[in-house]
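Q: Given only this backbone (678 positions), what sequence would you predict?
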């Protein structure tokens, strides 16, 4: 049976680049106009060339240092080195010369920086303690990933690689992105580092940053669909009470929104081990089991072709150990005699009686929309037509999925499993078809997401930020399409810095984020919109701009969906909506402007936020090529969504809208944000 395919671009790109001669770094200090089309006006982006993850975030002597994964010689991923910028306010940035360059032996992958205040490394002196970067050395010869040091004794301007590198190597090609910080209780350095392909974070400790002792591993847990990258671990006060602290573990992985995103866990850290607050097992909602394939036969379900064999599969499944809620041993597996076999398995007709149909699905990702001959999917048929479809995600691990059948209640339907695909992952797994009143949630849906948009990855927080504040920066892009984004001569920006806190919501500890307050320094005098009711349509508001901050409160009426459209005009809009039928906030960028540079770019990203009839508060940051939405309900629940958009510069309008009914914009404050580049 085929195995999960692993990391595409890193390995491919590494192989290609290892043969190239070392390319000379070109410091991008010369001030370009910074006003090219799509150039962010209040988000950091490098003057030229490719950037990905923020690295080495540290506040030091009055400056926020931002290092970043950087290609000094091109506008796509490669030659990975650390670029460098500084800011006193997290808003205005000055890009400095390249900090740590790749060389003939290594690329310089992601990592962190600490101030070695007691000169435990001996790289500086007690009087002039060094800054020490702990980064992943991507070995060009072997493809291995090892942790290495570089140090600076001039405040971060110039860097020397440690001659004793590597300081930590385990012979793995998936061991990266060390986040190091000072852990006062044991008076030692602590490292969180990803065992990427094993969906684990390893913890190590050290007294001198050179010799490291393994403490423990955390994971697999939460979302494990993709590799794990860029971990961060830090304490935060709960509900502002300094006597009540929890630890937050942040991990980049495959996101609920598609492509790469950032999940977090809250829990405890005892100096050795991180323990998550999440329950170990998931119990899906109960209901009427339509078919669980435990009887040893397909019963009244009928097969066609050879893919499904004569009876359900039984026994221990490969990779099934972690499926929460999986009961029994029988299940459907259309791998009968290999991916090449084809066929269907069809349920008898039944009357849709409950709102949700929940089931477990795994295997290939060949949706019905791929076409009749190439699909391998679970479909719902009504009047002979496919009205719902689901697939696995090219993984042998079953996960819960749920169809909302609200509009089909009372209809006659059939479930049909179709395996027509004969290539890799040309098989499907399924089980436990259950009619229920509540949706079952997939593993990614149950995970906690720092951001539910598609453009918030490799998020890490500052070491040593003043006043104990915890500030997070993230790469505002997605590995699905990052290299195709239509900007030149630079590619990628960082999301606007966020200040983090923890809040108890419905008895659970949740991460809460706000754009750092320094943003206010860019505001103009602002304007206030009057209360604006809308009924099945949209109303333009008296505010225009391509760099805007909006604070709005909206109250649902009878509408199915309502919200704000930004960057409207010329047929374009980015829709920030609330769907009252599903209880979700969303960003819809399908009509946002340029979207066709990658098939995974246009789409709608959704985040669950129950309003219970109460108002929806939106705090929105609009820049030349991004929209960030902080949404809250009246009970302190919050979700955040960040998406890149590439609208026409002339699309500057803001509308309030409601679909199929009423809603009200209770109030809105709007500010034009000044450019940090003028
Ligand atoms: C995350 C990442 C890291 C790695 C870096 C390489 O985006 O894949 O895991 O260190 O990018 O550029």
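A: Predicted residues:
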């Amino acid at each position: 049976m085929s195995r999960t395919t692993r990391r595409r671009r890193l390995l491919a790109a590494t192989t290609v680049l290892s043969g190239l001669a070392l390319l000379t770094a070109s410091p991008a200090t010369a001030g370009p106009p910074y006003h090219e089309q799509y150039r962010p006006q209040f988000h950091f982006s490098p003057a030229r060339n490719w950037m990905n993850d923020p690295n080495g975030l540290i506040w030091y002597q009055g400056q926020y240092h931002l290092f970043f994964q950087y290609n000094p010689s091109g506008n796509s991923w490669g030659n990975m080195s650390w670029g460098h910028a500084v800011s006193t306010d997290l808003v205005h940035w000055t890009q400095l010369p390249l900090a740590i360059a790749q060389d003939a032996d290594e690329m310089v992958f992601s990592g962190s920086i600490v101030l070695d205040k007691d000169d435990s490394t001996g790289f500086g002196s007690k009087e002039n303690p060094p800054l020490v970067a702990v980064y992943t050395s991507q070995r060009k010869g072997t493809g291995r990933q090892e942790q290495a040091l570089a140090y600076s004794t001039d405040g971060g301007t110039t860097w020397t690689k440690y001659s004793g590198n590597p300081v930590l190597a385990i012979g793995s090609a998936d061991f990266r992105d060390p986040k190091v910080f000072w852990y006062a209780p044991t008076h030692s350095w602590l490292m969180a580092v990803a065992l990427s392909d094993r969906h684990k974070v390893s913890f190590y400790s050290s007294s001198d940053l050179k010799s490291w002792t393994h403490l423990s591993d955390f994971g697999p847990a939460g979302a494990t669909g993709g590799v794990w990258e860029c971990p961060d671990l830090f304490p935060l006060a709960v509900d502002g009470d300094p006597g009540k602290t929890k630890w937050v573990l942040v991990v980049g992985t495959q996101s609920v929104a598609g492509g790469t995103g950032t999940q977090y866990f809250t829990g405890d850290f005892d100096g050795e081990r991180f323990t998550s607050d999440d329950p170990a097992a998931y119990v899906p909602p109960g209901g009427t089991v339509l078919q669980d394939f435990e009887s040893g036969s397909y019963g009244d379900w009928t097969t066609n072709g050879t893919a499904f064999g004569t009876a359900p599969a039984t026994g221990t499944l490969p990779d099934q150990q972690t499926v929460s809620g999986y009961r029994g041993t029988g299940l459907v597996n259309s791998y009968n005699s290999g991916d090449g076999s084809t066929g269907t398995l069809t349920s008898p007709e039944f009357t849709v009686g409950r709102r949700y149909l929940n089931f477990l699905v795994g295997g290939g990702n060949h949706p019905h929309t791929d076409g009749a001959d190439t699909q391998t999917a679970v479909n719902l048929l009504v009047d002979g037509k496919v009205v719902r479809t689901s697939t696995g995600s090219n993984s042998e691990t079953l996960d819960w999925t749920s169809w909302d059948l609200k509009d089909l209640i009372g209809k006659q339907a059939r479930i049909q499993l179709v395996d027509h695909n004969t290539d890799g992952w040309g098989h499907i797994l399924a089980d436990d078809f259950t009619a229920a009143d509540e949706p079952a949630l997939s593993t990614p849906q149950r995970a906690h997401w720092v951001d539910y948009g598609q453009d918030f990855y490799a998020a890490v927080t500052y070491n040593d930020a003043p006043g104990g504040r915890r500030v997070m920066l993230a790469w505002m892009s997605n590995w699905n399409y990052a290299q195709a984004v239509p900007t030149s001569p630079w590619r990628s920006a960082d999301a606007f810095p966020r200040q983090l806190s923890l809040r108890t919501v419905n008895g659970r500890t949740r991460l809460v984020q706000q754009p750092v307050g320094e943003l206010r320094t860019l505001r103009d005098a602002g304007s206030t919109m009057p209360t604006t009711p809308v009924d099945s349509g949209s109303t333009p508001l008296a505010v225009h701009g391509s760099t805007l901050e909006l604070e709005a409160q909206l109250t649902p009426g009878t509408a199915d969906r309502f919200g704000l459209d930004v960057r409207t005009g010329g047929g374009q809009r980015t829709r920030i909506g609330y769907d009252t039928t599903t209880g979700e906030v969303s960003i819809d960028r399908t009509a946002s402007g340029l979207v066709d540079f990658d098939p995974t770019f246009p789409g709608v990203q959704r985040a669950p936020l129950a309003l219970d009839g109460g108002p929806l508060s939106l705090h929105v940051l609009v820049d030349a090529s991004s929209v960030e939405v902080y949404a809250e309900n009246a009970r302190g629940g919050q979700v955040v969504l960040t998406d890149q958009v590439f609208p026409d510069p002339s699309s500057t309008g803001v509308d309030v809208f409601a679909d199929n009914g009423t809603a009200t914009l209770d109030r809105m404050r709007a500010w034009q944000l000044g450019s940090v580049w003028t």
